[in-house]
What we know:
Blueprint: E1 4-5, H1 8-30, E2 35-41, H2 45-61, E3 64-70, H3 76-87, E4 94-97, H4 103-106, H5 109-114, H6 127-135, H7 143-154, E5 163-167, H8 174-183, E6 187-191, H9 198-202, E7 207-210, E8 228-231, E9 235-238, E10 241-243, H10 248-251, E11 257-258, H11 266-286
Parallel strand pairs: 1-11, 2-3, 2-4, 5-6, 5-7, 7-8, 8-11
Antiparallel strand pairs: 9-10
The structure holds nicotinamide-adenine-dinucleotide.
Amino acid sequence: MAARILEGRVFAQKFKEDAGTKAAELKEKYGIAPGLAVIIVGENPASQVYVRNKHKSCEELGIYSEVISMPEDTTKEALLEKIDALNGDSKIHGILVQLPLPKQIAADEPEILNRIDPAKDVDGFHPVNVGRLVTGEDALVPCTPAGCIRMLELADIPMDGKHAVVIGRSNIVGKPMFHLLLSKNATVTVCHSHTANLAEITREADILVAAIGKPNFVTADMVKPGAAVIDVGINRIAPKKLVGDVDFEQVKEVAGAITPVPGGVGLLTVAMLMQNVVKAMEMQMKR
Ligand code: NAD
């Protein structure tokens, strides 16, 4: 039997509705809407599209939004100064610096991201938030893995006591996914580019998360019948053709549930960011 398709737009819509409702409640209670500032340095066309989408989502949901465009040749000092100003700006509850940064400051990325007040770090990249996630405290969590977990919950796919296998160990997806699945009482295995006998491990997974960045890498023989397969990968294989890390056509015949690419996890990230902005304001108002 073919798998249940987990459509990203259905879940993204729900995340956005929840964020919009909470944003309105916060505005009512405190007289100010949650606010997001996005800093974009340079003119990377893909980054400009991402930033526009974030701004549009904020407008739809009654979240105040500022886009700060800085020139390609921006220095580290100028960027840090801007972050400091936003850290002290009471209209702004969430700050993010759109990546990648231009080459003259690319190596300074950790210092730049760590300058964001952890309470406003809606990307969840600051070591304080990473530490809170690891120790199980309330944290701002990276949007893509947080969105995947919320989707599993809303789709009634059980995690407690299940074996989850994550392929990929990046700071943005793989590692936070590990901690989030663990916090849901899954037994979690993380695989990566040095893992031996990968297919043997993935075939044991009740929940299989692919965050690799290799087109159609996960094939049907790597999937346990009935497993939930979450494809985080976004790979452009032709100017207008995106595919995931999972061979969707093959794997949907084996899996119990699967996210498509495009139209799956990719749609959850911005919607989850909206939830993080609202959450950041709630946390700041309780301080
Ligand atoms: P990354 O390059 O930082 O990490 C890739 C991981 O895959 C590494 O940990 C590596 O060990 C592992 N890997 C590579 N080759 C492997 C192999 N042969 N066997 C097993 N593991 C292997 O990438 P990332 O930032 O985690 O992103 C992964 C994918 O997810 C990319 O396609 C990216 O575009 C996509 N992504 C999507 C979203 C979204 O919004 N949907 C967000 C972030 C990333």
